[in-house]
Amino acid sequence: MAGILTKDTTLSYKASGGSTFTEIDLLMEVPELGGDPEQVDVTTLKDSVRKYIPGVRDLGDLAFKFLYDNATTTSNYRVLKGLQDGNTAADFKLEYPDGTAHEFSAYVNVKIDSGAVNAALTFTATMFLQSEITTTNPAP
């Protein structure tokens, strides 16, 4: 079994009502996707041990890290900051080199990461999910 490298992984977006996804350049890190269900206690007075059933999954927030680019009106920082400033949810697609893709709708919050001597300037775009994460897999 061959491992999948994250090289050539892309994050794209489309505004509400848009028809095509546009790649957001200079993606450096992707977060964990998925979540664990809450435990719902269903223990009765006759049980000798606690019993649980799975409840609602908490997918949390998704924090993507980017190399900072603010040089043009279509730069990654300006696009994501524009979504934040407009308080606009958008559709996103995270796609791996093998064709596996995850799509979701989210609001965005961006913040410039700390800086250091001899280090690249980066920023984090945190996605506040507004939908489930749907996954499409490539044909075998």
Can you give keywords for this protein?
single chain, 140 residues, mainly beta, Factor Xa Inhibitor, 8-stranded antiparallel sheet, two-stranded antiparallel ribbon, 7% helix
Task: Write up this protein.
The structure is a single chain. The protein has 140 residues and is mainly β. 7% of the residues lie in helices and 41% in strands. The chain contains one helix and ten strands. It has one helix spanning 76-85, and strands at 10-15, 22-23, 27-29, 37-41, 52-57, 62-67, 90-95, 101-112, 122-129, 134-136. The strands form two sheets. Strands 1, 2, 3, 6, 7, 8, 9 and 10 form an eight-stranded antiparallel sheet that branches. Strands 4-5 form a two-stranded antiparallel ribbon. The longest helix is centred in the middle third of the chain and has 10 residues, at 76-85.
The percentage of residues in β strands lies in 35-45%
Oligomer description: single chain
| Number of strand elements | 10
Radius of gyration (Å): 19 Å
Please name the CATH architecture.
Answer: Irregular
Rough shape? elongated
Count of alpha and pi helical runs:
1
The percent range for helix content is under 10%
**Main sheet, how many strands, which sense, barrel?**
8 strands, antiparallel
Question: Might you state the CATH topology name?
Answer: Factor Xa Inhibitor
Helices and strands, in order, run as EEEEEEHEEEE
